[in-house]
Amino acid sequence: MVQKEQFDHEQTVTEKQFVDQFQALWPPKPDQLESAMRLAHRAMAAFPASPGLLCIAGDLLRMQENVTDEDIGKSLGFYEKAIEADPNWADALEELGHVYDIHHENFDRAIPCFRKAISLGAGWTAYAGLAKSLAQSGRRLEALEELSHTKCPFTDHALIQNVRDEINAGDWDKT
User: Fold this and answer.
1) Of the residues 55, 76, 101, 171, which has the maximum number of CB atoms within 10 A of its CB?
2) Distance (Å, whole) CA 83 – CA 96
3) What is d(CA 56, CA 134) in angstroms, rounded to the nearest whole number?
4) In whole angstroms, what is the distance from residue 140 CA to residue 142 CA?
């Protein structure tokens, strides 16, 4: 436990209480982002090996209005530290996949991140990320297979159906 000096000088704050505070304001509105980032810095100072808090910090950096390459590099570092702290932290693996996919267009690195996150129980956004990365790397049929009823438990989710339609239309084909 850590003294809650930053809050009211009389209480201690546990890792779970920090996480609960983030969940209560997630996702932060643009005008809340700065205070959420301050809270993340305090939380990570108190619990530097918390994979959950490291992921939150990485996410917050990527939510800024004008995300810089430096922000992406820092968020990548947070996700990597989270995986070092817990190699089976599905959220960190999935977010690492999204960084490689969206910000680096390195689909060969994104795909295994998404696959491992899925094997650890990640949700529909990991399936969507995997399918998009596969399609963008020229593997459209494999992408569609990953979204099939035999592989994806979220095939009826509206956004998975949308991704499937986009892949069928060629929207994610390698350019």
Assistant:
1) 55
2) 9
3) 26
4) 5
